[in-house]
């Protein structure tokens, strides 16, 4: 199965998984689990939610993670500050990268935007260099849309 088909399948699964549930934490936990187990070559998948000038760790799958990240710092903080997805092929050459897990080599962060405000981010890490591309970015943006639409 190619990536577009994989993301289409994940979106269908996510919509069914979240149907009828509006609790943010429950939906974030199931979304993180679905992504972690549904996408190959990930070592972390989860959420950070905005609390003032910081992002605070939310539900995730993978090794223990950094609990607080300042807006504008690291890949997650930059995605939150810019309101745009950030795709990093090699985190070891990314200025200001925060190494929660030294085994991570590439990262994709998609902001959660509601009413024009960033309320958090979806963060994916991989132990492989160059694991993420534009198809992953678009697919994860769609998954974030579904998550936000159901978790209101």
Please provide a written account of the structure.
The protein is an alpha+beta fold. The chain contains four helices and six strands. The chain has helices at 3-18, 24-38, 74-82, 134-150; strands at 44-51, 54-62, 68-70, 86-88, 106-114, 117-126. Helix 1 runs antiparallel to helix 2 and helix 1 runs parallel beside helix 4.
Biggest sheet record:
6 strands, antiparallel
Overall pLDDT: 95
Q: How many E strands?
A: 6
Helix content: 25-40%
> End-to-end span in angstroms?
32 Å
Radius of gyration: 14 Å
Cα shape = globular
N-to-C SSE series?
HHEEEHEEEH
Number of helices: 4
Beta strand % = 25-35%
Low-confidence stretches: none
Structural class: alpha+beta
Q: Strands of the largest sheet, in order across it?
A: 3-2-1-6-5-4
Q: What is the topology?
A:
Elements: H1 3-18, H2 24-38, E1 44-51, E2 54-62, E3 68-70, H3 74-82, E4 86-88, E5 106-114, E6 117-126, H4 134-150
Antiparallel strand pairs: 1-2, 1-6, 2-3, 4-5, 5-6
Summary of the model, kept short:
The chain is α+β, with helices and mostly antiparallel strands. The protein has four helices and six strands, in the order ααβββαβββα. The protein has a six-stranded antiparallel sheet with strand order 3-2-1-6-5-4, sandwiched between helices.
Features:
alpha+beta, 38% helix, single chain, globular, 152 residues, 4 helices, six-stranded antiparallel β-sheet
């Amino acid at each position: 199965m190619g990536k577009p088909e994989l993301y289409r399948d994940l979106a269908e699964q996510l919509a069914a998984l979240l149907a009828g549930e509006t609790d943010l934490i429950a939906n974030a936990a199931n979304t993180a689990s679905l992504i972690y187990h549904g996408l190959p070559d990930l070592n972390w998948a989860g959420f950070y939610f905005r609390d003032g000038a910081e992002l605070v760790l939310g539900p995730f799958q993978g090794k223990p993670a950094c609990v607080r990240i300042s807006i504008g710092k690291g890949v997650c903080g930059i995605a939150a500050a810019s309101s745009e997805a950030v795709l990093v092929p090699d985190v070891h050459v990314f200025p200001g990268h925060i190494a929660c897990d030294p085994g991570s080599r590439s990262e994709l962060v998609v902001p959660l935007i509601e009413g024009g405000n960033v309320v958090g981010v979806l963060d994916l890490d991989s132990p492989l260099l160059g694991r993420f591309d534009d198809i992953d970015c678009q697919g994860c943006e769609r998954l974030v849309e579904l998550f936000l639409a159901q978790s209101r």
